[in-house]
Amino acid sequence: MSGPDKPKVIGEEWSDERVKSFLAIEPYDKGENTDFNALLKAYQAMRAEDFERFIGFFVEAGRNLDAVNEQGETMLDRITEHRKSADYARALEAAGAQRRAAAGS
After folding, report:
1. What domain of life is recorded for the organism (predicted)?
2. Cα-only R_g, the chain
3. Is there a contact between 57 and 91 (Cβ–Cβ < 8 Å)?
4. What contacts 78, CB < 8 A, 6 or more positions away?
5. Which residues pair with 68 in a beta bridge?
6. What gap in Å lies between CA 97 and CA 40, rounded to an integer?
7. pTM greater than the 0.70 cutoff
């Protein structure tokens, strides 16, 4: 079965089943936010177009795009720190995700 345990392969087509499998990822540390962890793992493993599809499934499942990590950062906060993350950030913003400062106001 393909899923989050399969290594990242550049140029490989991801099925909807494989993309959706990241919804079931549980954090190793039970104190970590499950929604933030799923977003982080998907971001780390997926190409931008697959991540965008994942975001659609994530929202459809009623998950929280503005979940925070232990430092109080949303996934959008975290992603905007990376040089090559503009497409990922756009996917989050298009789905309604907010940066921490905006989420708190």
Report:
1. Bacteria
2. 13
3. no
4. 40, 69
5. 74
6. 14
7. yes
Cα 97 to Cα 32: distance, rounded to the nearest angstrom = 19
Q: Where are the domains of the chain?
A: 16-103
Instruction: Take residue 70 and report the two structure tokens written for it.
Output: 């232990």
CA 11 – CA 30 distance, rounded (Å):
33
Give residue-wise pLDDT tens across range 4-38.
555 555 567 899 999 999 999 999 887 889 999 99
The SS3 of residue 74 is strand
Count CB atoms within 10 A of the CB of residue 18: 19
Q: What angle do CA 6, 90, 45 make, to 5 degrees?
A: 10
* Better-predicted residue by pLDDT, 92 or 28: 92
Structure tokens at 100: 């921490």
Amino acid present at 49: E
Q: CA 103 to CA 15: how far, in whole Å? A: 32
**Residues listed for the chain:** 105
